[in-house]
Amino acid sequence: MSVSLYGSGQTVIQAVSTNLTGTVTTAIATGGNPATFYPISGFSVNITPLSTTSKILILVQGCGSNATWNYLTAFQLRRSGTIVGASSASGYNTASVGEQRASQDSNSQFNFNWHFLDSPATTSTITYQVYVTAELSSATFVLNNAGNQNASAGYSALSASNITVLEIATS
Q: Potential cystine with 140: which of 45, 67, 86, 106 (Cβ 3.0-4.6 Å)?
């Protein structure tokens, strides 16, 4: 099946998605700057492009928090280990696709999302993976739940996060 993008000369020829509905925790041993980014377990998707000229549209949507709510959280998107779609880093800055801080406390979550059009120029299987870090070391990022994961609290809602890739053939 393919879907033509009207008037663009482009066609979506493949779609792959990963939807995470459970709580996933990521220990951040070394945060700060320059920060070490850590993969969020399961927050990835594999695709094998059909052509070296195809483009891959990556769509990321997630919810989460830090166990210590006042830590700034930054994210990266990597293609088989290589950072893609991020800002350039120098000095005090960290190469990331975005950053968030929970607005209230460790009982709240924040949303994060972005998209990126990649040109991998390969027909080998590639993996797009979401990575995370925090402003300070010894933090814990919690995907799909509030940072404190208080199951007995009425305000600790579970969320879902997903990563979708669309292979786009150009004419």
A: 67
